[in-house]
Amino acid sequence: MVVAAIIAAVALALAALALAGLYREAKFWSATERHEQICREVDVVVPLRGTPPGLEENLAAITRQRLTNGEARFVFVVDDASDPAAAVAARFGEVLVAGSAPGAPGKSWALAKALEAARGDCVVFADDDIRPGPGWLEGLTEPLSAYDAATTYRWYVGRSLCTRARAAVSNTAFSAMQDPRSRFLWGGSTALRRDVVERGRIAERLPRYISDDYATYSAVKELGGKIWFSRRSIAPTPDPQCRWGDMFRWAVRQVLMVKWYARQGWTVGLVIYTLNFAFGIAMPAVGLAAGAPALAVGFSIPLINLAKDFIRARGVERHAGIRTRPSEILATWALGNFVIPAVVWTSAFVKCVHWRGRKYCEGDAKSLAEAAAYPAASAHDDQM
Questions:
Q1: Which one of 242, 261, 279 terminates a domain?
Q2: How confident is the prediction for the chain on average, in pLDDT?
Q3: pTM of the entire structure?
């Protein structure tokens, strides 16, 4: 009885934390966005490799964007001119051949070369798998009137169970994005003022990071910059060929980037997801089977998280116009209760990942990061 009471007490404490998260979720999506457009010329940079399904539709959506009192220049970066993506991209904008550098991550190198050729007063990084709505580019660039950088996040669309599992893992990032103290820059949709790019020496920094997200984020934070999260720019992401094995490896890779570059955040996530699974799923189920119904109080934790998922989905629909069916929300929540802990636990033991045809290990991330251990331009540099 004493053990059951202790377990129930821990479950109630975790449920209280979940309720606090539910309140923060509701408050986050109730906010409004009002900014003035200051960007007159925007370089939208999209790195490409190969021609995955839906590429043409995605590029068409990206290049369909318009700016108020400004112009957008779309630059598609490939490693080699023979890449079939080059021919597709040429129909939508300029194509830049970045080549490759030994030891430098492919995507980060491509972005660095594009920055060297950029000429606009604002720069946007975008992934080739998003299919953004018409307000995406405005929503990313308008906040630069008051912020040093603006970012958003993806929202997977599709009804397959594999896609819903991928969405569950992906959506965990929204919790970090809601708090300015833990907010990061997502490379799939990030906008920067040109002066931030130059003062942060981001073109120099990028090739020294496996994750371009953390390269740009670290530069902005070293400059003391402020980051805005654009709700209206949340990017629909089709997932036409989701396979369970590929999805799980992708999920582990996403978590490993956090582990390698933000160890403290990864540790906190490991603890939280472990406790929530133990006290919100495993122990209540065992308690019911063993005739200890008091432990069923733990089921309140995933149920609160389900309410949070519905609030988030409705917020995404309100701000970005992306409709998610109730059945899809339920499937995402149900699968996430098991897939997310499994991914986080797996990341504790995996040392290397394969990404876009290349192998990266934890040691590579550390050595590259050490090479990047120089400060961003100082205030003294700004005055010279």
A1: 242
A2: 91
A3: 0.91
